[in-house]
Amino acid sequence: MIRHAVVLVAAGLTLAACGASVSEASALRDWVNQSGYHDTSRALVTDARHAALALEDGATSPKELHLVCGVLLYDTESANASLPTPDQQATTLLSTAYTDFGAGAHQCYDAGANQARRVVALASLRAGGAAIAEATARIAAAS
Q1: Chain centroid to CA 84: how far?
Q2: Domain 35-142 has CATH 1.10.287
Q3: pTM of the entire structure?
C-alpha cells in the first residue's frame, strides 16, 4: 500500500515537472494576439468617434444614428466576447469600457433628435474611450 502511494506521488511530481508554466505577462501577450485586441480596440474607438460625430451633428437623422450606433454595438459585443483576459485589472478595465460603449450605443440609438439624450450618449462614449485607453495602457504595462 505504501509502495503504491510512493509510486503515485512520484508519478504526480513527474507530471507536474513536465508541465510548462506560463507567466502572466506571456499569457496576456498570447491573449492580445489571439483576441486581435489591437485591431478590435482601434475599431471600437473609430466606431465611437463616428457615433460621437453623428450625435454632435444636429442634422443627423435617426436612421443615420441607428446605423452608426448599431455598428458600435455589434463591435462592442464582439469585443466583450473575448473576455476575460489573463490579467484581472485589464479585464475589469475592458469590461468597464465595453459596458460604457454598449450603453452609449443604446443611448445613441434611442436619442433621435432629442439633444439631451444625445448629450447622455456622448458622455457614455467618452467614458468608454477613457476606459479603453486605460485598459490599453494596463495591457502594455502588464505584458
Answers
A1: 9
A2: no
A3: 0.84
